[in-house]
Amino acid sequence: MGPAQQILENLSAQRKRRWAVKMAVAETSDRLSAFLSSGIYRLESSNAVFIDPVRVLNRSYSRFRVSPSMYYSRFFDSKHEDQESRFSSNSRKRKRKEKQPHALNERERSADERHQEARPLLLKAHESLLEATDLLSVICNLRNDVCSLTESEESLPIVEQSFVELGRVWQAPLYEIILHFHQHCKPSGDASSPLIQYKEERVIPIFNNLVVNETSDNVEAEFLNSRYVIPRESCFYMSDLRQIHNLIPAESDCGFSLIVIDPPWENKSASQKLVYSTLPNRYFLSLPIKKLTHTEGALIALWVTNREKLRGFVEKELFPAWGVSYAATFYWLKVKLDGSLISDLDLFHHRPYECLLLGYCHGEGMDSEYQSRLKPLQDNQVIISIPGDYSRKPPIGELLMEYVPELKPARCIELFAREMQAGWISWGNEPLHFQELRYFRGTREKG
């Protein structure tokens, strides 16, 4: 190769490198732009995705916005930060204790084996997050962005409604919720007359009743001394476990194709903090998952903790009782505003992740040919997010939608819900918990 040809080769290699860098920058910019609008950022070089629950949830609202300072309260409230600091200190003490050699029992060994299998992919996912400097810059500045927004928020009194307690009293059937539908225009009937503007109110029972917002707008609601926000095209059914059978459709072709379940598993921490009522595991065997499933089948997504006893119960008893065939495990990895893990990855009893077990409940029309057309569930995916309040799970519906049976549009329901989303049915004994107006920024229209 002559000198001239060598120079040309070097110039060509330099152009290729510049082009590759330019394309990488453009791709990163596109991902960040998509994240700012959708709340979802697919990380490079790992089987992981970062989601901002506030941005995802805000897509359910037009005249309201979820308050970041309320959602991420543990990271914005100094009281919570002090608690986090004490927890970290206690965690270090526990870690030092756990380093002391001791014999693990059979369940602890099984739990540790699961953790060791998941550890490499969780570390890789976290490393990918730390390498996404453009994303981290947005996350780290969240506090500054929020401070300027929350100064003008309307001051709302904090009235804690115990829906669980109210639903148990004899007056429960008499309690009503008032739905205030937004002002809109309606033709007067006379083509020459102007449009008539009006508001509609509906007063309906709040317990053991399907409360529906069928409009494409958000609805503000009143119950006792509190106000709530109902997302567009959504509904909720507030009852205890005995009433869930009222949600079973008369025909299976009206059933659900995506069922997300976040059971109130027995949990000493929840009981001690009085955060929510828990139930013994055997109660969940009675959930009519098969009867709720659409004739073409449903994707089932079940949140579980890292307790080995619970995992064994789900695999050996619960999924078989529901008629669900296991398909994959996703991991929810919890981080702080700076991208660091909320606790040490190897902390035995307080690991910074939870599991989402996925499976299919086969409907009457879900034969082998139909199943072959489903997109295979990719195992061991990692969902990274900043956690909200205790027990509040990130909104994962959009991430699961590509694996849902082909029913269009998908019919989605969340069981034991404490929050609502547009297009979903939410069932539980407190689905309005995080719909109270104080969890939203004061951006709604006046008048």
Chain-wise SSE layout:
Blueprint: H1 3-38, E1 40-42, E2 48-51, H2 53-58, E3 65-66, H3 68-71, H4 73-76, H5 78-98, H6 106-131, H7 133-140, H8 142-150, H9 163-168, E4 176-186, E5 196-205, E6 210-213, E7 219-223, E8 226-230, E9 234-238, E10 258-261, H10 268-273, H11 289-292, E11 298-304, H12 308-322, E12 324-334, E13 353-361, H13 368-372, E14 381-385, H14 397-400, E15 412-415, E16 424-428, E17 440-441
Parallel strand pairs: 2-14, 9-16, 10-11, 10-15, 12-14, 15-16
Antiparallel strand pairs: 1-2, 3-17, 4-5, 4-7, 6-9, 7-8, 11-13, 12-13
Descriptive report:
This protein has helices spanning 3-38, 53-58, 68-71, 73-76, 78-98, 106-131, 133-140, 142-150, 163-168, 268-273, 289-292, 308-322, 368-372, 397-400, and strands at 40-42, 48-51, 65-66, 176-186, 196-205, 210-213, 219-223, 226-230, 234-238, 258-261, 298-304, 324-334, 353-361, 381-385, 412-415, 424-428, 440-441. It has 447 residues and is α/β, with parallel strands linked by helices. A hairpin with a 2-residue loop joins strand 7 and strand 8. The longest helix is centred in the first third of the chain and has 36 residues, at 3-38. Residues 20-26 and 147-155 have low confidence and may be disordered.
